[in-house]
Fold this protein.
Amino acid sequence: MALNPKVEPNLQVLGQTIALLQEDMDLDYFDALIETGDNLLTGEIQVEDGHPKPATVTKLQDLYDQVDLTSLAADDVRLLVQLLILKGYKQEAIQPNHQMTPDTIGLLLANILTVIFRNHHQLSLLDMGVGTGNLLFTLLNHLPDQDVMGMGVDNDDTLLTLASLSSQLQQVKVELFHQDGLDPLLVPAVDAVVSDLPVGYYPIDEKAEKFATHNQEGHSFAHHLLIEQSLNTLKPGGVGVFIVPAGLFQTPAGLPLVKYIQQIGYLQALLNLPQGLFGNTQARKAILLVQKQGCDAQQASQVLLGDFPEIKNQDEFAEFVHELEAFLVANVVVK
């Protein structure tokens, strides 16, 4: 994706404001990013207990006067915030599950949703592990023909604050819920759930045992439980589009998950993403497409399985995407 040349000057200036706030207020990078975002949104530099100092306030104001977000489209602002967060990831130790979904994958998911919901003017969309919101905002900014109600759930308050900040800077309306995605959800039933699922074991066995996909011994996989939770959150005929480990169903724990999907819905597609997007074979991810029963939804005549070609092979990649779109039109009916 080509970067709007107007993004870079804003990126440099905001980076300077974050560094000033870190030094003056003894903040870590992300707290300073949140602070500078709040200053931008309120149009006023927040001073508490004498910090930032008057000299710093003067420097900050000079820098904020150089920031121009009005000339940027919403997705350019998303990219700006994404780049600021990525800079923070180089400074702060983060969990692997907190890494942002690459834009290439986000745009693929946006295309899938565009095809599936091509006849829908309104759409409710939930990200079950919204994090900083980058994937959700990518989808919202690339579904221009729909009136989309976007929602996100996450149990990390810092990530959720960054998501809220990004949404306000983009002027994109979303509802964000600070809760464990495996607790009873505060969100209504939705047309689609999309999520780059956190991978690993869920530590609270007592809660996991309430789900059909829990392991009989030891901890259960969080991503399995979240798929089950997502299916229960969908409206009849709704779709779930998930980023999952490529070997999702190649472990003994995958069998209960398949059974549960088949019990209340349909497994429509499992497509391995291009290997070149990942550091090694073990890290490779896939797109899982499931659909809940009801409203004339039905099992595809044949589950779509396959591997995306490498993106550098442009003709092959484009042809594969075309075949995927044709499959969705023929097999994934949403009313």
